[in-house]
């Protein structure tokens, strides 16, 4: 497998992605420094919105995601992977299921559960080590819910905010679906249909859907 490849989804040769890379990265920076910069950029540059869902192939292209002000966990992960690959840093998509324990009322109302799936994060290869990172929750959202924002130092995993600042359980991973070289849209469709049949029926045939 080659985790540096461009693809339909990770279209980092697109002018929009290349423009972001040019504006964000300085010459002479190490891969570690580039990864930290791009992680922070995606974490805070696109606000997290779990209530916008799409099954349209086009909407999972990094160049399309980059033009929107918000993104869900998978969309933000796709964008970060595309940027990392464009910076010649191997990266891949990692999916799982998570359970939220804070501010779950709206989640439960919309999804019928406080579990979110598929939940996306990123694996990046730095100094011969695959590191996990999750750019999902932007800093302003974390401040709103009294949760420390996830920082990435380029040396350690940074993918789970288990507790908030008060020591209360915030989030936990309940299933790990593994990593993928490209975006597994068929798997994601089946996953949504299995866990949220009411949402799947509402989305099907639509380009985008807002819960």
UniProtKB/TrEMBL annotation:
<dbReference type="Pfam" id="PF01841">
    <property type="entry name" value="Transglut_core"/>
</dbReference>
<dbReference type="InterPro" id="IPR002931">
    <property type="entry name" value="Transglutaminase-like"/>
</dbReference>
<dbReference type="InterPro" id="IPR038765">
    <property type="entry name" value="Papain-like_cys_pep_sf"/>
</dbReference>
<protein>
    <submittedName>
        <fullName>Transglutaminase family protein</fullName>
    </submittedName>
</protein>
<feature type="domain" description="Transglutaminase-like">
    <location>
        <begin position="26"/>
        <end position="135"/>
    </location>
</feature>
């Amino acid at each position: 497998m080659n985790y540096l490849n461009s693809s339909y989804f990770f279209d980092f040769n697109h002018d929009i992605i290349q423009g972001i890379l040019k504006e964000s990265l300085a010459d002479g920076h190490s891969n570690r420094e580039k990864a930290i910069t791009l992680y922070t950029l995606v974490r805070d540059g696109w606000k997290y919105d779990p209530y916008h869902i799409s099954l349209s192939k086009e909407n999972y292209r990094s160049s399309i995601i980059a033009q929107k002000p918000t993104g869900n966990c998978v969309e933000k992960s796709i964008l970060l992977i595309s940027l990392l690959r464009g910076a010649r840093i191997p990266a891949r998509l990692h999916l799982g299921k998570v359970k939220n324990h804070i501010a779950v009322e709206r989640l439960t109302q919309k999804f019928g559960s406080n579990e979110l799936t598929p939940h996306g994060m990123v694996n990046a290869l730095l100094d011969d080590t695959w590191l996990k990172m999750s750019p999902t929750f932007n800093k302003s959202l974390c401040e709103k819910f009294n949760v420390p924002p996830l920082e990435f130092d380029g040396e350690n995993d940074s993918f789970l905010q288990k507790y908030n600042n008060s020591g209360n359980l915030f989030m936990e991973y309940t299933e790990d679906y593994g990593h993928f070289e490209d975006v597994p849209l068929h798997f994601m469709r089946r996953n949504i249909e299995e866990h949220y049949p009411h949402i799947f029926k509402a989305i099907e045939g639509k380009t985008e859907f807002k819960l």
